[in-house]
## 1
Amino acid sequence: MLVETVLLYIVGILVVLIGVALSIGLHELGHLIPAKLFRVRVGQYMIGFGPTLFSRRVGDTEYGVKAIALGGYISMAGMYPPAREGERPLTSGTDAFPAEREYEAERSGRRRDNFLSAMVQDARTASSDAIPVGAEDRVFYKLPIWKRIIIMFAGPFMNLVIAFVLFGVILSGFGVQTLSVGSVSECVVAAPSTRTTCESSDPIAPAAAAGLKPGDQIVKVGSIANPTWDQVTGLIQKSAGKAVEFTVIRKGVSTTLTVTPLLTTRDTLDAAGKVVKKNGEIVTSKVGFMGVAPAYPLVTQPFGNALPTLGNNLGHDFQIIGTLPQRLVQVAQAAFGTQPRDPNGPVGVVGVGRLAGEVASTTGVPWAERLSFLLGLVASLNVALFAFNMIPLLPLDGGHIIGAIWEGIRKAFNKVFKRKDPGPVDIARLVPLTYVVVFVLGAMSLLLVYADIVKPITLQ
């Protein structure tokens, strides 16, 4: 049994790792296809980072896989324009994951004025394959601005497509757990009685009187759409004697029923769901009661419902990015202190692997539900890849996009005032900031890895 659990744990991790590797490969394919269509010379298409395991050259491009398949890039000729008129632009690359060094330095021999200018110079002259003579026009920076934006946006957009498809498969193929009526009490048995059968003197339970039936999907209670069970019970407990409308879906048809909870005496429970006692006696309270137990069956939905699911995930990820410094402080406090880990906070690659393994090795859960969760995890990671890569900082795709947009604004401004075209924006000057970004992202990754080890987020 232990061996089986361990094997299932490993399988869960492998499923997610393969999903992530494929997602990164398709991300870079999103860059590669328009780059090829627009005749930009692409020197390399690589999945992973570190030592190259194998590669093959087809035409101008070397296709390969590196040792650690948690990143990827394509190297395009002339992503950085030349510093001076007449100089040749050199090759650069895109990264879906900042752990891979973006450029392999090739010294130009030009004099360096200071440390920062040296960094900029290295970025200009860095190249894994110099542009051959005669291919000077097949460079990225000479493309129209809209083509550059398409190339850089196509990678993250591919992650959105992957997430949409996976969410669609989950919703329409597996279904999602949906709050439903599990069982309906026939009568109200006053506490502290432990009877399990009804007597003629017992009042009919409000839910049964209203016509609620097992299997009804609860879509709205009062003014609360798509409520949680805690929201349902909270509303019922404070609505004794008041009519509460339940909108349910029964056999595909929406029905509205009115439930009037009865005021009953019930045991008081604490936050953990345990009975509260005082001086050895159970504490009771007067609350509204309707006589329903919840169930969470898998309910299939139309494929198109993947779009709002995708939107909700995007909103959540952008919210995390917007509050990332605060959330990282909370992660550090949890990792190095006694504070609990926020289950909705950022998770590193180790944490994702642990969650995948935990789900795959969970006993008593059908394989369909476990596979559905793993696919949802890969879909959510693709949404995170999109949101992360759209941050307007180099070396991320958003940094290149914002550079192209700024160049367009500058060109339009000079055209209005009939000034000379200033030429391409020299984003190489932002390389020192790029190194800072990479350092910060590296430190963030190490913190998340450490937190995922010492205080992991679990499903329990």
## 2
Amino acid sequence: MDKQTKTFQPFTKKRKLGYAFGIFTESLLYNMFYTYFLTFLVQIVGVKPAISGVVIFISIVWDAITDPIIGAFTDQAGVDKRRVMQHAILPLGIVFALSWLNWKSILGLTSPVGIVVLYIVLTMGIWIFYTLYTIPYYAVVAEITQDYDERTSIRSLSSLLNAVAVALGNVVPALVTTVVFNHAVTYFDVSVVLAVLAVFLGFLAVASLKSIYLEKAELPRGKINHGAALRETFRGFADIVKLKPFKFFILFVFFFLFASSMIQSSFSYSIVYCMGMPYDTGIVLVVASLVVTMAVITPLAERFAKQKDRRTSALLFISIACAGLLALRIIGLDAEIGGFKVMVIGLPVICAIGLGAFWTLFYSMAYDFVEIDEYVNGERRESLITAVPQFIQKLGSGAGILTQGLLLSAYGYVRTTADYDNIFSPISDPKIVQGMENITTLFPAILLLISVCGLLFLKTSRKNMAVLTERLEKRRAGETTTNEGLEALI
């Protein structure tokens, strides 16, 4: 049924809110995974830190490889992004929960290789279904609207709710160290709670998009030649990577996620060993500070982006985070004021300044490449444009966790306990403690500096995009245009 004979609904504020709640489906699971899964494998299952990092990295890299393939699929005529999301939600919740069981103990596995392979397969399952949900979830905005500021507003609302999702994804797993109703809470218990909530809100997001006009979903579906489709995927991937500003966007995204995943997966170790705080108290203060700061930064980043542009806003806040991490390294994570470990608040605040701006602006910045790609290559590929940055994002995130695991091993950290009453055993070696502090502050600061350099050379400013959009509209109308004034973009 075509657009003229089918009734479509406007994307109202109520529907935008319903869509925004879909961020919980990816963010709850994403944050629990990146903050705790390395800890789970090392401290509970008993996998060495370096091997744990490799397990996570392999699963994420495999998923990164499939990102452009999934993106190209959801860009095809007749493919409804809502249906792709809907079909991924329940399997995502199930596989996520299963990944947090101690299968070494349940199955009595003694082979280290068998344990590693099992968790690689499980985590690969998480990321495949995660991608099947998130790519159409984010890409659909670029299909609904091409308005520069409306895209920012939609992503900002979603990012504001993301602050709550970050809180739940980080605070609830901290209950693992507590006892509820005379039962020791496990990571599996927490994963089930978060998975159920993620599934419910994912279906709510799909429902909010019902009867919204999506051009590609209304086009007739042609017969698929899978070989040709795969070749087209790689051609499209190459087209996007060749876009003039994209190499700087890659630097920005890859190194930001590289840094942030190192910090996020180090929170547990930083609290216990660098700050010298009890884990259960420290993690609550860290996450509370992280969430409150993100909630403050999100509207500030959006407002500054509307006054200037998204690139300038991201550059400002991420530069502040970079400088802040260097300052924390100089001061030391064990700093006290009146006996209070101030870095339990200082560290997450600095991190959240960068995170709040990144997640508010990242996807709307990626949407700019939909128009650049259309101008240069003559095609609109919303999902593939979303998938390629996700490919870079996951490589960066995976590299962060892999590097953290390798560095923990290099500094000499060895797990010596594996019970839920005392997950972390004492460490007296100052070399290990100093190494953990470097992993949390110095190394991420260097990575953020590279990310900032990428932003400095990225020229997708509001002014440049306005010129490109104007020329693109003329082309669509059949008018002849020139490339004058677009040298920074094409």
## 3
Amino acid sequence: MAKKSIDAVDVSGKRVLIRVDFNVPLEGGKITDDRRIEAALPTIRSVIDRGGKAILMSHLGRPKGEGYEAKYSLKVAAERLSELLNKPVAFPSQDCTDQAAADAVNAMNNGDVLLLENLRFHKGETEGSSELAGKIAQLGDVYVNDAFGTCHRPHASMVGVPRAMAGKPRVTGFLVEKEIRYLAEALGNPAKPFVIVLGGAKVSDKMAAIEHLLPKADDIIVGGAMAYTFLKAQNKDVGDSRVEEDRLDDAKRAIDLAAKLDAELYLPKDHVCGKSFDEDGGGDIEVFGEHIKPGFMGLDIGPETQGEFARVIRNAKTVVWNGPMGVFEWRPFRIGTEQVAKALVEATEKGATTIVGGGDSAAAIEKFGLADKVSHVSTGGGASLEMLEGKNFEAVDVLDDA
């Protein structure tokens, strides 16, 4: 799966079309978290430092796809990028395919940076339109995919543009290169013991990953709300905890498969519960053992479970974590997730490869200030989960092999 990277291409004097992921959170028209812009800097700098012209394209939010909408404009991202690079970033027009955008690209000097307006102002972006892809492809001599968070989507900028640029270099940026290295290669041949930690709300979101990973894993840890579907499938009393009734058979199948494959499946043995789903648990927080009383719902793993999960993780040589153990945003229910994060750090210090699979897990490990103490934190929640399911991405397949 190794793909050619941007550092293997002579970009001097070339128009380098880079698909970045600047889908940043906004509040009142201001960026509240610029990590995605910062993550693209090494690729952008590699191009402009070697005399290339960096033409960036991204989506932002979910506009209707019927033209310009001010609240989804990437102008704010262009301004932040300019501050981070300490140089001007051109932002030519309200349409990534109009004449003003093309003229601005043609006027670029070596080392310049330009950001096109939101791709999703065109319906054709999410529809994978070859017509839109063809127009954008005319702007570049080299194509770079550095938007891992969108790699699982067959959109025009991800698949159509590199297809339309057949015969020209089509490569990964450093961010996508790193994601593929960790997620695909670590999973392809993991050092043992290989431990998978899955959490979050829904069994339905993680079932494909569980079935794909069980044959490779030594241990699978299941926490979060999804654990209550598994526990109910084992006839445990789960009180008012969230259960996907239509997924009980899936949970039973996974439990049976783990037993057959000799993989150890760890489920919570005790629970921090509240009477309602809010920050103080409805004013009544209790710890229950194996069985939860009616009227209470599980909102975090309990102390015994925290210790057991941490012990398994600390002894691993490869760990992949996707999904929190409880409602970590609320102080009374954050400890289980925090203990998992700390155990991941300890495993890393002992030489393990530790991968945090985007989304809520990435938000949690950032919140605890531990993101730089594990091997890799993925930038793509949905994309990393699909990679854990063993899916191939057309957006990566279309790039040149190393």
